[in-house]
Q: What sequence folds into this?
């Protein structure tokens, strides 16, 4: 499990860092660049966690049941519920809207 510092960042700094991460990930729009970036900056656990959450979102969009997703990706019902809520409450002005829009094209 990834370690998270007990020392909390100021919310505006945290938001800016997340925006920066998204910008960097968006710039690695070729698969090879993305793989190099994620292998350089993320641990195996972090990569797997992110990949599973993207997988959950895609399978939910494809109408898989919670049970099927739990079995296939080895994730908890709570994690699926968290991703499902994000997908169901996403508004066009939301920061995750482009992600959800991309998922819609993949379905």
A:
């Amino acid at each position: 499990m990834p370690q998270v510092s007990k020392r909390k960042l100021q919310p505006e700094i945290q938001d800016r860092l997340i925006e920066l991460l998204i910008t960097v990930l968006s710039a690695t729009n070729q698969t090879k660049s993305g793989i190099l970036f994620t292998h350089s900056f993320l641990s195996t656990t972090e990569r797997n966690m992110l990949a599973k959450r993207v997988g959950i979102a895609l399978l939910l969009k494809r109408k898989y049941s919670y049970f099927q997703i739990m079995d296939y990706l080895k994730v908890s019902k709570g994690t699926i519920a968290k991703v499902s809520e994000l997908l169901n409450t996403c508004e066009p002005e939301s920061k995750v809207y482009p992600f959800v829009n991309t998922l819609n094209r993949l379905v």
